[in-house]
């Protein structure tokens, strides 16, 4: 990539249920990398397909648990590819309408970089500098959302105390 094709890094918040894949699970995986399976929302899928690039920063967020919040920092580690769980009838993510020659659902690998202190949703909501963050908007339920560079910096360098 040369200077003409380079782009500023993008940042993402990616939600995972810790019973399925926690930051600890990701850190324990080979190369600290896990496939981000099970995305079954077209907008979240399109973010992975159209906007994410290898190297983009990720806030690893634990959801659907007693204390939801940011639990770690990660990065996008692979190009997009079909999510194999859509073809597996035994998977909770099976999609009978998806065909190997016409997959509907995609994934990217995510590499965990470090575990952080848990930054709970309530603490995020209480910080005025994060008021515009997509995660905090009423009705925001997507499992993957973009994070503005200013919000990333405030969270990673400020609230979490640096990289």
Q: Ranges with pLDDT <50 over ≥5 residues?
A: none
> What can be said about the biggest beta sheet?
6 strands, mixed
Q: How many β-strands, per DSSP? A: 8
Order of helices and strands: EHEHEEEEEHEH
Question: In terms of structural class, how would the helical and strand content be classed?
Answer: alpha+beta
Percent range of helical residues: 10-25%
Which percent band covers the strand fraction?
25-35%
Strand order of the largest sheet: 2-7-4-3-1-8
Question: Given the C-alpha coordinates, what overall shape results?
Answer: globular
Instruction: Determine Rg (CA atoms, Å).
Output: 16 Å
User: What is the CA–CA distance across the termini?
Assistant: 25 Å
Q: Mean of residue pLDDT? A: 93
Number of separate helices: 4
